[in-house]
Design brief:
- The protein is an alpha+beta fold and 131 residues long.
- Helix content is 50%, strand content 18%.
- A 4-stranded mixed β-sheet has the order 3-2-1-4.
- A hairpin with a 5-residue loop joins β1 and β2.
- The longest helix is centred in the middle third of the chain and has 21 residues.
- The two termini are 33 Å apart.
């Protein structure tokens, strides 16, 4: 079962992950100082829920998480991406992009689309590359 997980940076500077889907009797969420910590906490939550549900005689389906990030969380999760080069590829001013990644500014829908399309292009190029 594919489960969409929203990954966001909160106003307190921590990161949260939560399942977009609702489950009967439980929810899935994780929190941490980094995206990696929040994802790990989410996985622990999933395992605990499976165990609790098993004790009740219920079966929790196998879950494959699909992550949906805000801009800050995305660049925290993938710090090896060069923000300036992604901005250049998206046609966004690099200084403005850095403001998005640190939370000083928030992109509008048009800017999100530019970034999304740039990342899609990068992903396609990487998946086609071999050594």
């Amino acid at each position: 079962m594919k489960v969409t997980v929203i990954v966001e940076k909160a106003s307190d500077g921590r990161y949260s992950c939560y399942a977009e889907e609702e489950f009967d009797g439980f929810g899935l969420a994780g929190y941490g100082d980094t995206v990696a910590e929040a994802k790990l906490d989410l996985e622990i939550c999933r395992l605990e829920m499976q165990q609790l549900e098993a004790e009740k005689g219920n079966v929790v389906p196998q879950m494959d998480f699909v992550y949906k990030y805000d801009i800050q969380s995305f660049f925290n999760c993938f710090p090896y991406l060069n923000v300036s080069k992604v901005a250049e590829r998206a046609g966004i001013n690099a200084a403005q992009m850095r403001q998005y990644t640190c939370g000083a500014a928030h992109p509008g829908q048009k800017q999100y689309e530019k970034i999304r399309n740039a990342m899609k292009g990068i992903a396609e190029e990487l998946s086609a590359a071999t050594f």
